[in-house]
Amino acid sequence: MGYLPLDVILFEILIRLNDRSIDLCRCVCREWQHGLSSWEFVWRHYSENYLEKLLEDSPSLDNVVYEEHFSLEIKYN
In this predicted model, what pLDDT tens digit does every residue of 22-55 receive, in sequence order? Predict the structure, then answer.
């Protein structure tokens, strides 16, 4: 059987899992625990799974209605 490098396992396979499944995968071995806890993995998992969805769900700026500003006059006695 062939051997998959840790980078392939982390960034091609495990990055597609949800948070609960990733937490369970941390229990497989110490190497996976360290890899799944690394800043690079956490950032890529967040950006690929949540940031894109957040941007998709955010309202478009094309629909924003701009209103004219009004002026306010203050009269002193």
Answer: 999 999 999 999 999 999 999 999 888 777 677 7
pTM over the 0.90 mark = no
Answer yes or no: are the C-beta atoms of 50 and 61 closer than 8 Å.
Answer: no
Give the 3-state secondary structure percentages of the chain, helix then strand then coil, rounded to 5. 60, 0, 40
CA 42 to chain centre: 9
Dig out the tokens for 37 from the structure: 């806890």
Per the listing, tokens 């625990």 go with 33
Q: Which of the 8 DSSP states describes residue 4?
A: -
